[in-house]
């Protein structure tokens, strides 16, 4: 690890000021990606700005039609919240299967989506549910938030504060996790809002995306059999030491089918 | 006492003497030692799989402020190119030295080319970046079958295969050939109704110890060397360092740290001689610790292998002949465990006609190191897979086929000797009768069975038992405690002395405090060092009997020792009040001085271990993912001195074997460089990947050991590869022969049907 200055601002404004003034700043939420990155010297920030003591970022607000989650809420807190479990079990289930227990006890929603790892779980929930991201500056629709591999719509001095998740009629997330990292080799989030169906895929491509042909098929018929004859093209899919594009393309269909089955059974 | 006795401490689940320190974090591992003025040493490693070193320029690094010494290959002694035996090990120190620090060529990605010692870690890193190495990259070869081809790039231009008559005239990557067996293969296969031939492949697997290698080395002004490090043998470290650095063993004191796992991977050294060279030049102590990336790139995994098996049987299940050719990756210099692989392959079976041929093949990878039961898991995986397939073809139960052909007392082992009393049949019977074996299976589920055999090892051990005047005892032995051996030593000493377990304190002594011990390996410690401890305790008991005899003025032969007391051996011996160990110890000053029992032995009579494992898996037919549902491991250990640590060793071996079967593999790029250098990409199983591993301990005592010990640690890693592969094959109806059984590979097999 290289040396850096460590800051623990007490307000969102102070944190944003560090982002504006420091030479090469890096925000720290739960640190579950950032600290390993520092240790491997893949990042060498001049300043690390820890959001742990910024007020207002640790909250859950569950209403009938919407679940709002603060950016600094840990995965474990989301997973174990009885309100989230009742209102949006697919989200609680997703959070409860991120990484391992240690990651879930430190890792946060805001950190996950701001990092936009192509295999992270939360981006699938945001896209699948059509969520809205609140930042220190504005609101951003999830569909506009994730722009490319490890890239988001966030400005350099912009900080995620919370995410609003609309509560769907039915939803579920299914992932095939990497045996070591527990990241999604492929994860699919399916949500049904009345006649509108959204299908978000993570892990398969360079960035989370909506699978249009699945959404169309499921809009016509929200059942596993609606996907049975679908062919998913492996073109442009990720390849790594574990699996290639063909294997991932197969997983997209399998995980989507299982997500529909799970959604019909009540989600999770 | 005796192998069938009822014991007070042997076989009990006592609290381990090292437990508290390990739980509280007080235990000192290799990286925990520090000294005033200590420098940090680091190694520059080759980025190429195979290259000629044209030049190394260290001048800029040497000039960097804070850098205290820099060494390269030429700074180490050149040694004769021949193999020398040291205890149970054999080593070629010329090759070992070149592996520690490359001379003319680098032979794998990660091969050390230079090292620095500096006042801080950051300065050491900076210094490494200032060393300029000019390479001429050479073609490389990674795969064992590729390396055996006539036109393969040669690692060593003068290497002529040993063990072939007449000797080849052309150099190759095949370092040696070995052969075992007897009988008439042709007649055996002619008598068979069914013959199965298959080729199997396994990937290198790393031992995966949690503690990376580390050492603190101080070379004093008078040349005295002190080494704090964790290893599987402080005497191994001393022997190797003395020979590599050409100094006397008496000048080196190796103090063993607690060891955070070894599994065979710490039977070799990587850092200590380098730290010696750096410390000697700098005049200050040097600490060196590896990163996980260094551990993965540059320490020894076990060999990747390619194995052909041919097995014949009559239609009623009698095995008529078995043949195997084994090709093992040695890494950059000779030394794969193909020998033990070839010896163990068919060992669980009574075969009249058997032949195994092994080839030790060099490739551009780090030198293979021992990994639990070196060589056996791969060869037995291949044979156990074919046994399973044979049972299917014959319509027989796989355990019944094994029982029908089981090696037993009197069977000639495929590697030569006749087995004495062994527990092979008992393990098979226990497995067959275990409720697991008859439990129903659901859809997409499969059950696999496999057996395993390991020789177990004796060797040289020294132990002392010091009786304190308050009636307690300190047991000194010389083997690093990897699997709970201190608890076992204390239990055996307490049993022999007849005092309470918590009155016995066992310690692992340094090389200057006790006589020579072979390292912890081959499942020898509880057997051989345990025997030494028993003998030393018996020696102390004899001294105490003699003292009681003097007090009572009778012959020592008329004094017996039981329950911690000297007693008259019978009515004829006289009527005396028994004297306790504490009574005798209290008066030791008046009775001839301190009581110290000693033993120095080369333990003979190591007895083989067998095991039979059952595993149930479920294969997801749409993704190829395997879930291990249930696992039962049966093993003959001779005597479980401490059942909890026996179970722990069995469970650990199973976990590692399952990882080898399902997940673990080294992934090399086209450039010959390792791509998965950490646990994020090299998956070892963790608790959540596995069910509870049930263990069944069989005790067929080894008469050569005072309590019947055979050894535990090697056998349990052998059957999982075959058992898991058999279970997966049975679940999907396709024979899986290429480990690891990753989901993409299984899915492809399901889709292709072969």
CATH architecture assignment of the largest domain in chain B: 2-Layer Sandwich
What characterizes the major β-sheet of chain A? 5 strands, antiparallel
How confident overall, as mean pLDDT of chain A? 96
Rg of chain B (C-alpha, Å): 27 Å
- How many helices of chain B? The count is 20
Alpha-carbon distance between the two ends of chain A: 39 Å
Strand count, sense and barrel status of the largest sheet of chain B are: 7 strands, mixed
What helical percentage do the residues of chain A reach?
25-40%
- Going across the biggest sheet of chain A, name each strand in turn: 4-5-10-6-7
Q: Strand percentage of chain B, roughly?
A: 15-25%
Shape of chain A: globular
Tell me how many strands of chain B there are. 28
User: Structural class of the helix and strand makeup of chain B?
Assistant: alpha+beta
Task: Produce a short descriptive summary.
Chain A has helices spanning 12-21, 34-39, 75-80, 82-87, 89-96, 101-106, 109-115, 122-129, 142-145, 212-220, 245-264, and strands at residues 5-7, 25-28, 47-50, 60-62, 66-70, 132-135, 139-141, 146-148, 151-152, 160-166, 170-177, 184-193, 196-202, 209-210.
């Amino acid at each position: 690890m290289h040396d850096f200055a460590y800051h623990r601002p007490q307000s969102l404004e102070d944190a944003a000021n560090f982002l504006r003034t420091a030479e090469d700043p890096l925000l720290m939420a739960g640190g579950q990606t950032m600290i390993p990155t520092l240790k491997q010297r893949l990042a060498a920030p001049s300043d690390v700005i820890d959001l742990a003591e910024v007020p207002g970022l640790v909250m859950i607000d569950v209403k009938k039609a919407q679940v709002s989650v603060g950016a600094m809420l840990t995965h474990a807190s989301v997973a174990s919240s009885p309100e989230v479990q009742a209102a949006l079990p697919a989200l609680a289930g997703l959070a409860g299967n991120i990484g391992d227990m240690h990651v879930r006890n430190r890792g946060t929603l805001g950190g996950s989506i701001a990092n936009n790892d192509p295999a992270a779980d939360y981006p699938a929930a945001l896209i699948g549910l059509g969520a809205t991201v609140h930042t220190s500056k504005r609101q951003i629709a999830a569909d506009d938030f994730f722009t490319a591999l490890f890239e988001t719509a966030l400005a350099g001095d912009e900080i995620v504060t919370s995410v609003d998740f609309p509560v769907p009629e039915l939803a579920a997330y299914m992932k095939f996790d990497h045996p070591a990292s527990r990241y999604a080799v492929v994860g699919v989030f399916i949500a049904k809002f009345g006649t509108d169906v959204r299908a978000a895929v993570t892990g398969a491509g360079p960035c989370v995306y909506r699978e249009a042909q699945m959404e169309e098929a499921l809009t016509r018929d929200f059942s596993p059999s609606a996907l049975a004859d679908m062919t998913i093209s492996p073109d442009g899919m990720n390849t790594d030491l574990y699996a290639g594009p063909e294997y991932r393309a197969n997983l997209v269909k399998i995980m989507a089918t299982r997500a529909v089955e799970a959604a019909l059974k009540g989600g999770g | 006492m005796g192998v069938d006795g009822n014991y007070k401490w042997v076989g009990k689940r006592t609290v381990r003497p090292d437990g508290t320190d390990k739980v509280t974090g007080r235990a000192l591992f290799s990286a925990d030692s520090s000294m005033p003025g200590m420098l940090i040493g680091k190694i520059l490693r080759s980025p190429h799989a195979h290259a000629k070193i044209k030049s190394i320029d260290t001048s800029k690094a040497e000039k960097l402020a804070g850098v205290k010494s820099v060494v390269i290959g030429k700074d180490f002694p050149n040694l004769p190119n021949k193999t020398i035996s040291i205890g149970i090990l054999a080593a070629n120190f010329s090759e070992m030295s070149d592996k520690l620090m490359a001379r003319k060529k680098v032979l794998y990605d990660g091969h050390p080319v230079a090292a620095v010692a500096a006042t801080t870690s950051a300065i050491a890193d900076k210094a490494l970046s200032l060393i300029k190495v000019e390479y001429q990259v050479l073609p490389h070869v990674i795969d064992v079958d590729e390396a055996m081809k006539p036109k393969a790039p040669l690692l060593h231009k003068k290497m002529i295969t040993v063990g072939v008559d007449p000797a080849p005239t052309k150099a190759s990557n095949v370092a040696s050939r070995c052969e075992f067996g007897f009988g008439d293969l042709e007649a055996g296969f002619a008598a068979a109704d069914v013959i199965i031939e298959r080729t199997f492949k396994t990937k290198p697997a790393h031992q995966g110890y949690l503690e990376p290698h580390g050492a603190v080395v101080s070379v004093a002004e008078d040349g005295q060397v002190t080494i704090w490090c964790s290893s599987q043998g402080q005497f191994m470290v001393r022997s190797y360092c003395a020979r590599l650095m050409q100094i006397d063993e008496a000048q080196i004191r190796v103090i063993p740290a607690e060891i955070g796992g070894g599994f065979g991977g710490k039977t070799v050294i990587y850092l200590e001689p380098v730290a010696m060279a750096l410390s000697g030049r700098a005049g200050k102590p040097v600490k060196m610790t590896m990163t996980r990336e260094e551990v993965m790139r540059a320490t020894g995994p076990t060999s990747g292998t390619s194995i052909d098996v041919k097995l014949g049987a009559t239609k009623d299940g009698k095995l008529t002949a078995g043949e195997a050719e084994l090709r093992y990756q040695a890494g950059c210099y000779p030394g794969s465990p193909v020998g033990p692989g070839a010896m163990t392959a068919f060992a669980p079976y009574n075969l009249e006609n058997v032949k195994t041929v092994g080839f030790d093949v060099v490739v551009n990878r780090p030198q293979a190191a021992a990994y639990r039961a070196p060589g056996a898991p791969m060869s037995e995986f291949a044979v156990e897979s074919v046994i399973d397939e044979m049972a299917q073809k014959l319509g027989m139960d796989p355990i019944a086929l094994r029982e029908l052909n089981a090696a037993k007392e009197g069977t000639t082992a495929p590697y030569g000797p006749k087995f004495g009393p062994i527990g092979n049949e008992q393990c098979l019977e226990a497995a067959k009768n275990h409720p697991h074996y008859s439990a129903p299976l659901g859809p997409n589920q499969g059950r696999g069975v496999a057996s395993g055999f390991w020789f177990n090892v004796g060797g040289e051990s020294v132990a002392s038992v010091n009786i304190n005047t308050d009636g307690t005892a300190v047991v000194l032995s010389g083997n690093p405690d990897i699997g709970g051996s201190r608890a076992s030593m204390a239990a055996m000493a307490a049993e022999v002395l007849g005092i309470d377990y918590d009155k016995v304190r066992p310690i692992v002594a340094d090389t200057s405090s006790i006589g020579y011990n072979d390292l912890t390996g081959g499942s020898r410690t509880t057997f051989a060092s345990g025997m030494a401890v028993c003998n030393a305790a018996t020696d102390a008991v004899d001294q105490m009997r003699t003292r009681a005899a003097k007090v009572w003025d009778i012959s020592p032969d008329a004094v017996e020792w039981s329950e911690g007391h000297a007693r008259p051996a019978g009515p004829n011996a006289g009527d005396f009040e028994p004297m306790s160990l504490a009574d005798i110890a209290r008066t030791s000053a008046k009775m001839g001085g301190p009581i110290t029992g000693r033993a120095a032995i080369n333990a003979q009579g190591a007895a083989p271990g067998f095991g039979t494992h059952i595993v149930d898996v479920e294969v997801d037919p749409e993704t190829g993912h395997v879930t291990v549902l249930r696992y039962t491991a049966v093993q003959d250990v001779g005597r479980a001195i401490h059942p909890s640590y026996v179970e722990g060793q069995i469970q650990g071996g199973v976990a590692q074997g399952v990882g080898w079967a399902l997940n673990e593999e080294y992934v090399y790029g086209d450039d010959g460089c390792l791509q998965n250098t950490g646990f994020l990409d090299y998956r070892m199983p963790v608790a959540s990947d596995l069910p509870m591993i049930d263990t069944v301990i069989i005790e067929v005592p080894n008469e050569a050991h005072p309590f019947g010990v055979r050894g535990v640690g090697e056998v349990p890693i052998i059957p999982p590869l075959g058992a898991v592969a058999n279970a997966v094959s049975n679940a999907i109806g396709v024979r899986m022969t290429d480990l690891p059984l990753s989901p993409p590979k299984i899915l492809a097999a399901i889709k292709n049907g072969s």
